[in-house]
Amino acid sequence: MCQVSGTVAERTSLFRSQVENRRLNEGTLQILESVLTSKDVKSLLEIRSCLSEFVRSELAYILQEIAEKTVEQKLSVLEFFVRTFALVGHVESCLMLRYEALILRQHKSTTHLWLHVSYEEWLAFAERSLNNGFYSIAVKVM
User: Fold this and answer.
1) How many CB atoms lie within 10 A of CB 112?
2) What average pLDDT values come out for the chain (142 residues) when binned by 10 residues?
């Protein structure tokens, strides 16, 4: 658990509760954003690290839970976690989940044409991966 106090601790607890209760929506992301407004760099780094660890552990459970859900539900959950990892500054997890979402869309686009992933989307993803130093992820796309 993060060693924070006051309002930040309350908001952190609320964020954790929302995720644990599977309220994976815009409101939960706004709570997370409010947690990450600390002016103290040391505290902010600790909070980000702690929340990143929490989110990674919850993600494993949630991915198992959504295995039989619709493609739309899976993509919604993946997008929530992409945005969550982006907010906590865990770029590798953010890119990895974005890649998984693109792969899922590509795979399902044979029966759901609206899910088709364009060449431009793949290229933009590869560029983001390269720009963030994740060459191994970018190479998968190329």
Assistant:
1) 13
2) 73 96 97 87 87 95 95 96 95 93 94 94 94 87 75
Q: Helices 71-88 and 26-35 meet at what angle, rounded to 10?
A: 10
SS (H, E, C) 67-120: CCCCHHHHHHHHHHHHHHHHHHCCHHHHHHHHHHHHHHHHHHCCCCHHHCCCHH
C-beta separation of 31 from 15 below 8 A: yes
Question: What residue type is 3 in one-letter code?
Answer: Q
State the CB neighbour count (10 A cutoff) for residue 65: 11
Q: Which tokens go with 4?
A: 């924070």
Q: Give pTM, 2 decimals.
A: 0.89
Tell me which DSSP letter residue 25 carries: S
Residue 28: which residues within 8 A CB-CB, separation 6 or more? 15, 18, 19, 80
Query: What would you report as the CA-atom Rg of the chain, rounded to the nearest whole angstrom?
Result: 16
Block residue for tokens 């991966």 = 129
Greatest CA separation found in the chain? 51
